[in-house]
Amino acid sequence: SPLLSWSPPSLTGWRRPWIHPSGRLGSPVPPLQQTLNMYLKCTSHLITEEQLKKTKAIVEKFGAPGGMGEFLQKKLLERSEHTANWVYDYWLEDMYLSNRLALPVNSSPVMVFPKQNFRSQSDTLRFAAHLISGVLEYKSLIDGRALPVDYARGQLAGTPLCMDQYNKVFTSYRLPGPKTDTLVAQKSTVMPEPEHIIVACKNQFFVLDVVINFRRLNEKDLYTQLERIRKMSDIEEERLPPIGLLTSDDRTQWAEARSMLIKDSTNRDSIDMIERCLCLVCLDEPSGTELTDTNRALLMLHGGGTDKNGGNRWYDKPMQFVIGADGSCGVVCEHSPFEGIVLVQCTEYLLRYMRGSPSKLVRAASMSELPAPRQLHWKCSADIQTFLTSSADKLQRLVKNLDMNVSKFTGYGKEFIKKQKMSPDAYVQVALQFTFYRCHGCLVPTYESASIRRFQEGRVDNIRSSTPEALAFVKAMDVEKMELLWTAIKAQTNYTILAITGMAIDNHLLGLREIAKELKLEKPELFSDTTYATSIHFILSTSQVPTTEEMFCCYGPVVPNGYGACYNPQTDHIIFCVSSFCDSAETSSDLFVKTLEGCLKEMQDLCTKCNTEAKPADSTKRKDGTTKVMKNGSNVHKCLKNMSHCKC
Ligand code: COA
């Protein structure tokens, strides 16, 4: 493993500024006309002729010489001269902090670990102690600037990537606010200062100091402390209301509850301890459900609701390690400080650490007199009780509403696609477009996250995968057109390169919109146009999160009538995690996955037929889901309601 065999680079490696080929620091601002042309290209086939005519006129006016677009572009360029990353603040606010939706399902992705086999409670605690030990190791690598610098893989491989996000893994906190949240950062230090984690058990929160007297607790100490916490949580008379449920509510509601809560000094102290912890370890009760991949994904996403482990969480903290007594384990991640790829690096390190470093429970000496872990106390007024009841209700609705399907497509994997000389990521994206078209008879604005960590403080931009070329291909699939598959793959790959080199349109348009707001100018018509609203309503929200360990990532849809589709391509198979909401009559995760399998097989057949060189051994017959009836009783070839104006 590159992480374990790696020796520390020089500090300059870690601190190196990310220099754009043009010689500039940070990401480039794309040329205005390029973005406007691309905007029209990305939306024109997804809207009506009439709307397109209107939008074309608006875009032309915006981009005219001496017009608003040129003015805003100049301001953006000025901004880019004096900020490390001109889009970072705008993007963080727009993507996360101003989003009022509840964090579970809607925002926080999860990593699902392979199912563990715990035979006893001590097994569970041993696993937890081992994991915490790994977390402390990993944190000391981050603090000592000793993590290897990541390099881009796949397209345009080899560029060093910005490592800033790692500094935020154990030091951030998302503070809820009435209108917008704040991402609070604690200073990270190399000195072993007093540090603690919070252990959640039976909806109670306990402070577990992990550095005492300048010494990090060893695994045996950690185990001893966890055992004490377990015993304390068993005392029923000491049980307090499940305050963690408040953090699962929508952000404005939680902000309101929090300001009421901190009026009391006991609550203020408890909240302060949680906000300053390194991470949470949630010791969950057995879920009582069959631990299939899909059910374990659900348990990570929402804890199974109030009657299971829904209250055993604190969603504002970026890292919550969940260890279920029944073996259902994983990580819940508050997404605003870092991307899924950083989460994967961290969790893969931990899994390898646990596999490679045997538990040190027997050999290590325990501190003789460890101070007892402390339970956090809460004073719950009647108002807080009312908030709790409402948060519990909403979480239950979220739990009932999530329609999830985790499936392993075993027909083929990356290897077959590479043999076709195609980018596996582009291929999967085109397959997702094909699937959506088969399910709904149209294409919709699609989001695919593209890393821009090549640039300083770079996070992501969007690859708009529903390209006109993809539409041409999916429409032609009935007559099997290999050439159109090639064109669609090429369009997708070109867009990917555009995005990862900082030339995509979403961040740029966001920058133009936000700088106009900052300058207190009237909102340009471009951004009040229906096309713009449609273009950022991402019915299909996708992301590649590859892993080298046996685990997978998943998340919920970002709009009520949408799908979340996370995929993990492996050599000979691909894991798909598809989510949607049950109360949307248009969507169905099961149907989507079934159709996807059929589409992937059809694409394989097409490739195999047209390329005898790359004939796979296990080519299977076509199997599509076109006759499947949707939840609303309609046939699958049906446009989504809000896209009924679309032309396809
Ligand atoms: N022929 C043969 N092989 C090809 C090929 C072609 N035409 N095109 C690509 N490949 C190979 C690549 O060299 C790479 O090889 P490797 O497995 O040996 O590294 C492999 O196929 C994968 O490349 P590709 O499928 O093109 O994807 P990618 O790895 O470049 O990923 C993105 C594309 C957009 C997903 C990636 O750039 C990115 O941004 N990832 C981050 C996504 C993210 O942020 N996720 C988390 C969100 S929370």
From TrEMBL:
Its EC number is 2.3.1.6. Residues 28-597 form the Choline/carnitine acyltransferase domain. Pfam families: Carn_acyltransf (PF00755). The keyword Acyltransferase applies. GO terms for biological process: acetylcholine biosynthetic process; neuromuscular synaptic transmission. InterPro entries: Carn_acyl_trans, CAT-like_dom_sf, Cho/carn_acyl_trans, Cho/carn_acyl_trans_2. This is Choline O-acetyltransferase. It comes from Sinocyclocheilus grahami (Dianchi golden-line fish). The gene is LOC107585314.
